[in-house]
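Researcher: Next sequence.
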Amino acid sequence: MNRLEEKVAIVTGGAGGIGSATAHRLAREGARVVVADIAQEAAAAVASQIGDAAAARRFDAQDEASIEALVDFAISRFGRLDILHNNAAYVGADLAHDTRVTDIPLDLWRTTFRINLDAYFLACRFAIPHMVRGGGGSIINTSSGSAFVGDIARVAYGSSKGAIVSMTRYIATQHARDNIRCNAIAPGLILTQAFANSGQTDLSPFMKQILSPRVGEPDDIAAAVAYLASDDAAYVTGTVLHVDGGLSAHQPYVADFEAMMTAAE
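Model: Next structure:
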């Protein structure tokens, strides 16, 4: 398919599992892609794999000037901007301290919001005027299933992802007349390198709740981004697409009831 022929996209966090899969998918569908990441060599490797349709750009999600320069780079390199996939996320070594409101260090809370939310806000701020001049565009923000339910830890992560959902709907509302669509994706468990680095090896607690017979892969998110970026989603804006194998579709006690019913047979 060439649903994105002649389109230009920015993918932040483009060197990561979801970001790199998305950059490859958008390019396969005809887009020219700026692979943006703080890890410059890794971003360059992804762009090199894609070929002439991609360019790498180092950017710092905590630096406003760096985010503005990223958008300017996309315009100078490819002449326009049609798609923005805000996907960068905080993956610092201190994430283990993202626990409860009573315990989380305030600096960690603030850093999480700067990278997970403020950077998305700034990228939209700088991208939207170019999209308006180009006749429209599509913004896709990576949220999370953690935006919609509580958990025993990761209060900063979940709260920042919830704020992304609200911001997405505001942008969709305020810029619909500019032919700019803004949607969010809420991934469930996705087997990325970041997940592997978390040390979680037992998937059975997740598989009890996921309706799909398998765990999610980065390509699942990439496919959703490509859809929302394309004209196939021309009538879709201000929504959240849950890509979670059905995790969010059912009551929380379904797995326990299934086990009870199996034991009774």
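Model: The mean pLDDT is 95. The beta strands are 8-12, 32-37, 54-58, 83-86, 137-142, 180-187, 240-243.
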